Amino acid sequence: MAAILTGIVLNKRPLSGVIEEGARKGEGWRFLSMEINDMRFGRVWSCQLRGDDPQYDDLEDANLIGHKVKVTVSAQTAGERTLKDGRKIMQIRTQITNLKDLGVPADEDE
Fold it and tell me: What is the CA radius of gyration of the chain?
């Protein structure tokens, strides 16, 4: 069963690299990293849209910052991440697909 996440894109950037260990060592990877703020609960989700997703090429250069989006959560993983200052943290990564751009939300204060 998939889950649906609706929220505001806080940032988006393409990332790529090469797998350094394991059976897939030497293989390249790429994904769009997005932080999406869940408007209902105020949580920020670290999301990744894989490079082999059919929407990747269309979304790579799209300006989605500040846009409301609806995405399908296809998987979640947790893993250790080393921050720039050397600290190690556990991070939940949410793999997404089927991104729908709902545009810039209207200001509710107007």
Answer: 15
- Give bridge partners of residue 84 from the DSSP assignment: none
Q: What is the b/e burial string over 40-55, where b = at least 16 CB atoms within 10 angstroms of the residue's CB?
A: eeeeebebbbbbebeb
Instruction: Tell me the one-letter amino acid at 34.
Output: M
Q: What are phi and psi of 59, to 5 degrees?
A: -95, -15
What are 83-110's pLDDT values in tens digits?
A: 889 999 998 999 999 999 999 988 754 4
Q: How many CB atoms lie within 10 A of CB 93?
A: 16
18/34 Cα distance (integer angstroms): 20
Measured CA to CA, the distance from residue 76 to residue 82 in angstroms comes to: 19
- What distance, in Å, lies between the first and last C-alpha atoms of the chain? 38
